[in-house]
Amino acid sequence: MKFSCNKQDLMEAINIVQKAVMTKATIPILEGIYIETNDSLKMVGNCYDMGIECSINADIQQKGSIVLNSRMFGDIVRRLPNSEVFIQVKPNFNVIIECDNSYFEIKGLSAEGYPMLPTVEEEQKISVSQTSLRNMIRKTIYAISNDENRKILTGSLIEANDGDLSMVALDGFRLAVAKVMIKEDTNFKAVIPGKNLTEIYKILEQSDKDVKITLSKNQALFELEQCRIISKLLEGEYMNYKNFLPEQFETNIVVDVSEIIESIERASLITNDDKRYPVKIVIEDNKMLITSNTDVGISKEELLININGNNMTIGFNPKYLLDSLKVADEEKVEIFFSSSVGPCIIKPIEGDSFVFMILPVRIK
Amino acid sequence: MKFSCNKQDLMEAINIVQKAVMTKATIPILEGIYIETNDSLKMVGNCYDMGIECSINADIQQKGSIVLNSRMFGDIVRRLPNSEVFIQVKPNFNVIIECDNSYFEIKGLSAEGYPMLPTVEEEQKISVSQTSLRNMIRKTIYAISNDENRKILTGSLIEANDGDLSMVALDGFRLAVAKVMIKEDTNFKAVIPGKNLTEIYKILEQSDKDVKITLSKNQALFELEQCRIISKLLEGEYMNYKNFLPEQFETNIVVDVSEIIESIERASLITNDDKRYPVKIVIEDNKMLITSNTDVGISKEELLININGNNMTIGFNPKYLLDSLKVADEEKVEIFFSSSVGPCIIKPIEGDSFVFMILPVRIK
Question: How would CATH label the architecture of B2-107?
């Protein structure tokens, strides 16, 4: 195998496929990046739960394939000058990497036995912009559960339904739904592991360019311009989350998002990250009073707000409120309270691009 | 005690005195910041090895003193709006902190029993700009030893001598000297603990403003405009470092600093941070060849340089070369080799603002 390519292009592709390479594996080949030259340069990372394939432009002088230790290859390329990189495999699998006045020769591994990505049967396919998918992941991923005993909740539900695409995560204490419109009428449902979505989020750019999402029985395929990401799906039936969303509300308020974030952050300083201590919210006289009272001391914050409905006293784990408010990306949001012991809901003032639900905690 | 002051001023002072507060102490008062209102607002942090006192402008309504938990006080003030902060101590030592619509009440500790800073007898005093002292610390601190069995080497020597102020650190493998001129003819010598210098470095600004340094028998006092830092000294006699600096050289070269840093960094990728593997430097034909050869593979880097003297083959721990070159802050430096088994010296092309000495390692 022999080829040359641009350092930046190579580095970007390595950064992407590395997200699917195990950092510690019992078999060295699984800590490697598979590199193949054919019509273009193709690189693959695969940890079984997720596989990523990237293609980049290269000047290919000789076809072939090799596996290179991902960390070492990445570290070397990262440090190379911004210039053309020449790579060549010797018969003993040693790989020569040259760039300007730098020369490396490192041990490669035969590509035989590398676990290639499975093919995904094109059953149901939809398109969404990279920005939209990024936003949906960001607005929901914090609410997935990390309880391995309820495996299905460690992933996010992705659901296409008559022109809507939703992403849903819930962990028993809160629920997050993000939604966009899509052109396709496709109907499908699948649960993608949270850790794969975290990596996919990092690969997606703020861009209008499309991501194509294809679902088969056991896999989801995310296709970007120069890369394909295959994620396994979590098995099982996802909860019927719509049942959890209350529809009757006693009180609703409109709040300035950055103002309420700062106030809750201050109040939660006193709770010292101790989960026993909720923040108490009192809504009355067009004011919102956020207080906490712990071993350390007390704090009080006062915000002027618009109230619709009854006065209300309710307690929350401040972290849950903050997690949701921080991904709202709106200047103002509307908060709906079902009762002083029931769930509250956070929504944008207009539209239905997200719904966050949070259960309150009992206050003494 | 009752006063109000600007949030930013208060935050800056807390950030500074916190550097001398223990994060974990058996006595709660030692995890606290001492606050006193008299003519101005004074705050103190003290961990015995180092003490810091800061004064800031405040509107003082009632004199008094209190100790507040450093982390809690800092966290609260950091999160307050940029506005006037009102602080008041209640008879039960509870402290009220108010700012705009935020209200905190946290437990304070009686200031009785707080270890106040010692007075430093003004014996020998010199002045140097903050920028100069910063640079001297930066250029030497990496070379102090962390071997507690040779305690004296865990600090840096600060030495005033007929109008020169030097700072020196050495650890048995390398030696760093930084020097500036001062107005005073004072002669003194003291060894300041490395960890105190690390904190002092963070407090110093890039500024022409003076730091006054006063030495007494057991302490050094660093006086800035609004703060005083007292450091204990390390006991014992510092090594006569000048004896270690070779004066005869077989070869000297001039190198571009960022070029050689990048080359050594690449070569050291192959050494995998394994100290058994040095980088080998071959100097001949106006070229510098930097190579490494390990289990992982080999690397070669070639730089064009000017050579004075004999050809040379010599090995180094790449980390030691990089540590020195990275703080040189020069475009080009001159490297002097005494022999292929003797120390090398790195100096600026002009002047004597620093001298770095590094011992080579044997190559196979």
Answer: Roll (3.10)
Domain range list for chain B: 2-107, 124-243, 245-358
What the block records as the tokens of B165 is 């102020």
CB contact set of A134 (below 8 Å; sequence gap of 6+): A201, A204, A205, A206
Q: What is the predicted ipTM? A: 0.89
- Non-local (6+) Cβ contacts of A180 within 8 A are A128, A132, A135, A136, A164, A165, A353
**B300 touches A: beta carbon within 8 Å:** yes
Helix, strand, or coil here: B250? coil
CATH classification code of B245-358 = 3.10.150.10
Q: Kindly state whether A71 is in contact with chain B, defined as any CB-CB distance less than 8 angstroms.
A: no
Q: Tell me, yes or no, if B211 comes closer than 8 A to chain A by beta carbon.
A: no
Q: What is the CATH number of domain A124-243?
A: 3.10.150.10
DSSP letter for A30, please: G
Nearest to A114 by CA among A211, A20, A247: A20
Identify the closest residue of chain B to A104 by CA–CA distance.
B299
**What are the pLDDT digits (tens) for B84-122?**
999 999 999 999 999 999 999 999 999 999 999 988 887
Q: Do domains B124-243 and B245-358 have the same CATH topology?
A: yes
Residues 6+ apart with CB under 8 A from A174: A143, A320, A323, A324, A356, A357, A358, A359
Bridging pattern class, strands B188-193 and A210-215: unpaired
Give percent of chain B above pLDDT 90.
90
B185 touches chain A (CB under 8 A): no
Decide if pLDDT at A133 tops 70. Answer: yes
Binary contact (A105, B302; C-beta < 8 A):
no
CB contact under 8 A, B298 and A263: no
Which tens digit of pLDDT belongs to each residue from B305-331? 989 999 999 999 999 999 999 999 999
Q: CB contacts < 8 Å between A and B, how many?
A: 76
What's the CA gap between A264 and A256, in Å, rounded?
12
Q: How many CB atoms are closer than 10 A to CB A359?
A: 16
Contact with chain B for residue A78, Cβ under 8 A: no
Nearest to B101 among A94, A296, A303 (CB): A303
Judged by CB atoms closer than 8 Å, whether chains meet at B79 and A266 is answered as yes
Euclidean distance between CA atoms A177 and B185, whole angstroms: 73
Which run of H or of E encompasses A175?
Answer: strand A174-181
Q: What is the DSSP letter of B90?
A: -
